[in-house]
Amino acid sequence: MSVTIEYVPASSPVHRLHALTKLAAALAVLTISLLLRDPLSLSVLLLSLLGLSAVAGVGRETLLAVKGLFKVALILIFLQVFFVTEGNVIVGPIAGVSWLAVTDAGLLFGIAMALRMTTIVTSFLLFLLTTPMRSTVLALVEYLKVPYDYAFLFITSLRFIPTFLEEVRLIREAQEARAHDFGGGSLARLRAIFPLALPLVNLSLQRAERMAMAMETRGFGLPGRTYYRTEKPGAVDMAVIAGLLLVIAVIGLWQFG
To answer: Are 172 and 196 in contact (CB under 8 A)?
Structure first.
């Protein structure tokens, strides 16, 4: 099952938070993940995010994304365990190579790296699933002073990912209806992708042209920008941001104090 990153409308407490607060929370999770070193603490942080996603009503979408990250996490563990030689050897040496051994410290380091990657991705996924695109643009432009062109480019890129995947699915089904075979070995599958490329590029260019015309008719890039609606952080948002800063300070003192 494919995973798409789209805003899921709901009225949960997480959805009601300001976009700036949720972006700050995602950055706070990133900082805390980098501060924490042991797999147990990172596991607790990841489970907390999964619980928060359930409260927000996006638990299914988040679990699908985490499930899709398992393969990447396993590859990360496999690569990391052989770079750490400290600790007690639990497997090896493999194939008679002295340095090709798995130690307990290397295994824990690899698991921590995989959990850290999964936690960071999950936090930003939760932000995207619970925040409308227009709110994200307003937060980036109004409060973080990101130029509107760059903010629009960033949001447009995210917005068109599910559209792009849907078009790939439709083109693939159309080609299969014409008896095109997408099976076979790795090389055959690679060759089978080329018939998808031309119609996909053609559709993308047509969409870009339509979007450019629509933006020009609406005065994109003209000075004196105004907003139809504004969103300001409330007292709850300020309290959440202050709480996040306090948590980061406490964990920093715990790890390095």
So the answer is: yes
- Residue pLDDT, tens place only, 35-73: 998 899 999 999 999 999 999 999 888 888 888 888 888
Residue corresponding to tokens 């003192």: 253
Asked whether the beta carbons of 129 and 50 are under 8 A apart, the reply is no
Bridge partners of residue 91, in order along the sequence: 102
Greatest Cα-to-Cα distance within the chain, rounded to the nearest angstrom: 71
CB-based burial, 37-50: b 16+ in 10 Å, e otherwise: eebebbbebbeebe
Q: Quickly count: other Cβ atoms within 10 Å of residue 210's Cβ.
A: 10
Under 8 Å between Cβ of 128 and 5: yes
129-167 pLDDT tens trace = 999 888 888 888 888 888 888 888 887 877 777 777 778
Residues 6+ apart with CB under 8 A from 183: 189, 192
Here the tokens at position 62 are 């988040």
The token pair at 102 is 């798995």
Neighbours of 83 (CB within 10 A): 10
Residue 127: how many other CB atoms lie within 10 Å: 21
pTM for the model: 0.76
Q: What residue spans of the chain are helical by DSSP H?
A: 13-16, 19-35, 39-55, 59-81, 104-130, 133-138, 148-177, 186-217, 235-256
- Structure-token match 């494919």, residue found: 2
Cβ 16 vs Cβ 235: under 8 Å: no
Amino acid letter, 221: G
Separation of alpha carbons 185 and 112, rounded Å: 35
Cα three-residue angle 138-131-11, rounded to 5 degrees: 120
